[in-house]
Amino acid sequence: MMKKRNVDLVCDIAELISLAEGGRDRRELLQQVVTSVASHMQADVCSIYIYDEEDKELTLRATQGLDERAIGAVKLKLGEGITGRAVRELRPICVGTASRSDSYKFFPGIHEEDYEAFLAVPILRGLRRIGALVVQADEANYFTPNDVKALRAIAAQLATMIENVQLLSEARLEAAASETAAPKKVISESLIKGRSASTGTARGKAFTLDSANSESCVLPDPDAKPHSLEDFERAVEKTAEQIDRLQRQTSEELADVAVLIFSAHLLILEDDQFSGRIKGLIEEGCEAVKAIATVVDEYVEVFSKSKMPLIREKVLDVKDLGNRLTRNLLNEEADTADYQGQIIIAHELLPSDILKLSAENVEGFIVSSGVTSHNAIISRSLGIPMVAISREQADAIPDGEEMLMDAEQGIIYLHPGPEVYDKYRDLDQAWRVLHDAADMKEETRTRCGQRISIFANINLLSDLKPAREFKAEGVGLYRSEFPFIVRNDFPTEEEQYVIYKKLVDQMEGRMVTFRTLDIGGDKMLSYYSNVNEANPFLGMRAIRFSLENKDIFSQQLRAFLRAGADADTRIMFPLVSSVDDFIAARDIAYECMSSLDAEGIAFNPDTKFGVMMELPSAVEVVDELAQEADFLSIGSNDLIQYMLAVDRTNEMVSSLYLAHHPAILRAINRIVRAGLKYEKDVSICGDLSADPRMLPFLLGVGLKKFSIDSVNAPTLQRLVNELNMEEAEKIARTMLALGRISEVEAFLLERNLAPECEA
Ligand code: PEP
Ligand code: MG
């Protein structure tokens, strides 16, 4: 190995930078810096990322060694990957074997996969983040503390230069902004980095379906032959048949949520104001495609201005209908006109839109308004990948663009090359093997023989099939709100009973945990117009809604109790903030039991009642809650949100949403201790239960019951099999003693055998 000459390097860079004062192009200069560093350090890769304070995002701006198409396209959020962490924590991070590091972010297609040694040094001006200087090498443990020092010296020099140039260009941009019109759809980047909302990969063509945009998204066909009135009438007939078929099919497959889901489509189609008006325009000599687009636009305009949410929600239905009609008109041969082979880009989507588009075979979703928790959950249940990106990024994707979505990592490849497709074929295969439930054992045990139970989270009845496939020991969480969200009115007790009974029957004697309605927060019912809340997450959500609306609550409780007759069922209440909340809710359930008894209707008198541990206030009174309730279930998604005051759906603070925050670790420990003390069952049902990094901690504090999305069950069982309780308990003790986020992160990294050398 040639000797590294770090002192020469620092001098050379100083000279390069002094030339920059003479007005040299910044891109060229950064490129020269990375080339020079890579060559002096004998590193395989050297890259510079520049930090954007507003977006809290790093963008690759120069590289030697990675695919140059990644420049401008690879983006990392603050805290994301080893580089993002170095910049967030304002310190160099040196990792000997990157592939074993939890923080490592892998971007296929940019040739990063061959490098093990990874050294990221933040470029700082005081505490101001400017960017990062990164080197990589294929030989593990290649970088030394001396290299860290040299890169720090270079980073310090780069900081001043970059900051000066940035200030200048910001001033220029400001001046230009007032003169520039809205950006056109131009595509200059081959990769977009967003945030994963539902995992999986999807391939397909981009199709923009923007409900907030009044412009019609009907595809114009430049070669279309003129269409007659008869052609249009045939298209209407065919569209009606398709929708009818779709409705029947969906009602069978998704009985709990798909009742009359396409009814608005049919109503609008049959409305004379709609089809009649299109016919009128065609008779006046307007081309049929144009006539459809015109009337769709008129409807969109009227619907989107409506004061009633129920009407506003129909905007997407009209657009969808217009697309279907147009496709049927243009392509008389095809008989589906669905979204197979297409990835939908939308500003906003409703859970019912997701259901409809899923029935129409859409491949994936890209959403640009942030993702509500219910949208993420429903997409996961339907197995459709979903990625959230910014409005600006979405606007830059032209319709018809070939894309590959890696929703696991939140990456969208635009016009991907064959090497990206090949890579993903292999990754897909590996993913399938990893998530295959066929080989799962009935019982899950640690290496030392400790029995652990894995339950399923159920959102839609269709989740029962994969739950049975992995031999779930029961349902640890049934999110009951979806049948409420997709309807036009509250479902009756009888309608609910039918759904809940199916759930109980299909679990064939295994325990079922019903969670009462959790609406509010980021999902209101469109037919229940509550006051507009300034802080809906702190407002009329979950058990608060149920306690305020006793009739609706009682109907649901009666349906749960009836469905549980002769079965092993439990009921838990979401967002409980006090013992009083819990007792008030359970008292209503007791009243329901008395009335069912008086009416002679069968129900489960042994139903257990539990608390979802999601609020800091509940943690403070956990001892009293554990004494009062039959069981506790940790809802880690909300527990993290409310303990850290970080909105779980807000992109801008996603780097602060930390499951390993010492406060969260200690809260979980307190909850488990209270359960043990009062001999009450404690389980965990939030996404944290599927986080492999945190599993040793969770086992170590004494959690033995996990409720997770079925897709994660094989991995959980495999990881549990590899762990030993004594080791897990030691890990938990160590983590509980740490008071800083950075200490917990360093500990987790260390455990993954990714040596870090502090500079
Ligand atoms: C949770 O908060 O962890 C939870 C399981 O409930 P939801 O995700 O439905 O809010
Ligand atoms: Mg919750």
TrEMBL record:
Q: What top-level branch of life does the organism fall under? A: Bacteria
Which key words tag this protein in UniProt? Coiled coil, Cytoplasm, Kinase, Magnesium, Metal-binding, Phosphotransferase system, Sugar transport, Transferase, Transport
Subcellular localization:
Cytoplasm
Please list which residues make up the signal peptide: none
Q: Which InterPro entries match?
A: GAF, GAF-like_dom_sf, PEP-util_enz_mobile_dom, PEP-utilizing_PTS_enzyme, PEP_util_C, Phosphohistidine_dom_sf, PTS_EI-like, PTS_EIN
Give one Pfam hit by family name: GAF_2
Catalysed reactions, as listed in the record: L-histidyl-[protein] + phosphoenolpyruvate = N(pros)-phospho-L-histidyl-[protein] + pyruvate
GO terms of molecular function? phosphoenolpyruvate-protein phosphotransferase activity
Q: Which family does it belong to?
A: Belongs to the PEP-utilizing enzyme family.
- PANTHER family, per the entry: PHOSPHOENOLPYRUVATE-PROTEIN PHOSPHOTRANSFERASE
Its name, as the record gives it, is phosphoenolpyruvate--protein phosphotransferase
Gene this protein is translated from = ptsP
